[in-house]
Amino acid sequence: MNYRHAFHAGNFADVMKHVILTRILVHLRLKPAPFRAIDTHAGTGLYDLGADEAERTQEWRGGVDRLGEPFAPEVEALIAPYRAILATVRRRHGDAYPGSPLIMRELMRPQDRAVFVELHPEDGAVLARRFRRDAAVKVLHLDGWTALHALIPAKERRGLVLVDPPYEEPGELERLAREMAKALNKWPTGIFAGWDPIKDQRDVDGPAAIIAGAAPGKALRLELMIDQPTEPDRLNGCGLFVANPPWTLAPEAETILPALAERLARGRYGGFRCETLAARDAGH
Ligand SMILES: C[S@@+](CC[C@H](N)C(=O)[O-])C[C@H]1O[C@@H](n2cnc3c(N)ncnc32)[C@H](O)[C@@H]1O
């Protein structure tokens, strides 16, 4: 396990993932019934942007650092909850960036519960310390893929599972799709969000077909491209498959993603995709 999220925290991919995450959680909060939040590959939950790791890559400069100027009002309205969490974190911790567990925790209400899973011994220990006095949160030191199936269906019946692996192993993109398909079968009403790295958008067609087959008409393929796929070894974009999305998510993503693509593009090229996967997409 070589991947450490501290090198990448706050980059363009985190911004895309975390803005969409906040939109899903905001929707879950609309009904008083409790929800369960699960993060199968959670990281440490908070990242110091002045630390060596962040200093070395400076990736946050191409992500959260570019959000200073306001967007158009309709975009600002949608990213307001994300901006509010960034502001809270800065107030409490200075020059730091929140990870997905902290974002989930900020949007939970007293009736909601969360389970955060992290396998890296050091990062897992940091995460466990962060939430040790928090009765609404359980931190598990476990393999996230095993945990994914062990923790569902949640007793709350409503909930969100974020699956955000490090992509260190070959075939992990197909694995994400297969595991999401299996999990959907076990918890058909859960919302599942699976993150994917994009070098070339065509690489994502196979996994998209698997998810389309498992949840035809009920899954979104969201993508943000910040560069053209001319450099095949570079991260040129990222995506999220969202199964059982709130009905509000597709129109919200159509507003948010083009604004992020324009703002976060490396050069002149920025692109996005927001597609509902249909049964015909399963035929690739
Ligand atoms: C992309 S990072 C997670 C970032 C986090 N979800 C966020 O958005 O702030 C992936 C994390 O998965 C952890 N990890 C790697 N293999 C794992 C496994 N098999 N089970 C659980 N966690 C794992 C890594 O240590 C790393 O912290």
In short:
The protein has nine helices and ten strands. By secondary structure, the protein is α/β, with parallel strands linked by helices.
Kindly state the number of beta strands.
Answer: 10
Q: Which spans have pLDDT < 50 for at least 5 consecutive residues?
A: none
Q: What's the N-to-C terminus distance?
A: 32 Å
Taken from the alpha-carbon principal axes, the silhouette is: globular
Hetero groups = S-adenosylmethionine
Helix-strand pattern: HEEHHEHEHEHEHEHEEHE
The mean pLDDT is 96
* Largest sheet: number of strands, sense, barrel closure: 8 strands, mixed
Cα gyration radius (Å)? 17 Å
Number of helices: 9
Strand content: 15-25%
Helix content: 25-40%
Q: What this model shows, in words?
A:
The structure is a single chain. With 284 residues, the chain is an alpha/beta fold. The protein is 39% helix and 18% strand. It is built from 9 helices and 10 strands. The strands form 2 sheets. The chain has an 8-stranded mixed β-sheet with strand order 5-4-1-6-7-9-8-10, sandwiched between helices. It has a two-stranded antiparallel sheet with strand order 2-3. α1 packs across α3 (73-93), α3 (73-93) crosses α9 and α7 (172-186) runs parallel beside α8 (205-214). The radius of gyration is 17 Å and the shape is globular. The model has no long low-confidence stretch (mean pLDDT 96). Bound molecules: S-adenosylmethionine (SAM). S-adenosylmethionine is lined by residues 1, 3, 5, 17, 39, 41-43, 99-100, 117-120, 123, 143-144, 164, 166.
